[in-house]
Amino acid sequence: MDPQWQRTFRDRMQGFGQRRRPSPGDIAISVKIRVTSGCFHREHSPCAYELIDSYLARSAAEFEFEEHESGPELLVYLAVASAGLTLAKSVIDLITAIIKARSEGVKKGDRPNDPLELIVRRIDHQSGFREQTVLRIGHNDPADPDIIGKQVAEALKRLLTAPKAEQTKPPATPKAVKRKK
Predict the structure, then answer these.
(1) DSSP secondary structure of 164-175
(2) Given this model, what pLDDT does residue 178 score?
(3) Other Cβ atoms within 10 Å of 85 Cβ, number
């Protein structure tokens, strides 16, 4: 990993921690929705961001929304002590809404239309940067919030418990991209 990028990420996460005071036991994480190639930001995905902005205006979730050229990032706290290893339903709903907005945007002409990767990551003060790829999903694939929530919970468990060497292995076949019959 680029050391400069890692420093920028560490600074972003530390700033988040200073702006939003966690409860004891909470862990700051990043949820990145990244395009596999090209860009996923306002300039190239105006239709998707119109839907994302509309959803954000109605959202009551506790998070910070960061825009990047490669796709949006959510900075959130994971309440490990009280809620296990799952994100709040409102955050899973927001992730699902962003994935669906990307799909709708592509249908309306947003480009590029490359698949998205959902990644959870964090700064581990003992071993450094850690991340888990949750899933890869194409713009024609359905985005089921129950499946996404389950896969995020599994990735968070790996993120918080797995040795650093295992952090970058994506799941073999994401269940979220299977079509319902």
Answers:
(1) GGGTTPPPSS-G
(2) 42
(3) 18
Question: CA-CA distances (angstroms) from residue 145 to 11, 31, 73, 141?
Answer: 30, 15, 18, 13
The tally of domains found in the chain comes to 1
Interval 112-129: pLDDT, tens? 889 999 999 999 877 678
* Domain annotation covers residue 137: yes
Query: Dihedral sign, CA of 54, 16, 76, 104?
Result: positive
Range of the domain at 56: 3-14+26-177
Residue 89 lies in a domain: yes
pLDDT tens per residue across span 10-52: 999 999 988 887 777 788 999 999 999 999 999 999 999 999 9
List, in sequence order, every beta strand (DSSP E) within 97-137.
Answer: 116-124, 128-137
Q: In what order do the strands lie in the sheet with 116-124?
A: 64-66, 73-79, 26-35, 116-124, 128-137
